[in-house]
Backbone:
């Protein structure tokens, strides 16, 4: 199926999301920091990205902006525990196609990835 990059500083969140996406037939690559996400995006060319907003080195909104600069058609789903309406709006305005609140259920996560992958680039 598709190659999905999971960007989250939480090893637990990456492990859970990886298991869900691999069960759905996707190939998964991971990044634990914003810097490694940008490097991995350039090297791995994922079909979609699951992006946490709160990371130690570079904030998720800055990573989102950089990914969109590298590829204006990048498909990004922000998955964050910060569920304030202003945060969701900033992510969507910044170029994310979807915003999911943590913890996202398996069905919700797979549905969001499926929807984002179906978008015409």
Residues:
């Amino acid at each position: 199926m598709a190659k999905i990059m999971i960007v989250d500083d939480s090893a637990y969140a990456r492990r859970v999301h990886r298991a869900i996406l691999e069960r759905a037939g996707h190939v998964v690559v991971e990044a634990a920091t914003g810097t490694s996400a940008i490097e991995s995006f350039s090297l791995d060319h994922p079909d979609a990205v699951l992006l946490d907003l709160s990371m130690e080195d570079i904030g998720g909104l800055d990573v989102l902006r950089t990914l969109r600069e590298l590829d204006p058609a990048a498909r990004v789903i922000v998955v964050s525990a910060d569920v304030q309406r202003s945060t969701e709006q900033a992510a969507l305005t910044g170029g994310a196609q979807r915003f999911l609140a943590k913890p996202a259920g398996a069905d919700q996560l797979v549905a969001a990835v499926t929807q984002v992958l179906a978008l015409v680039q």
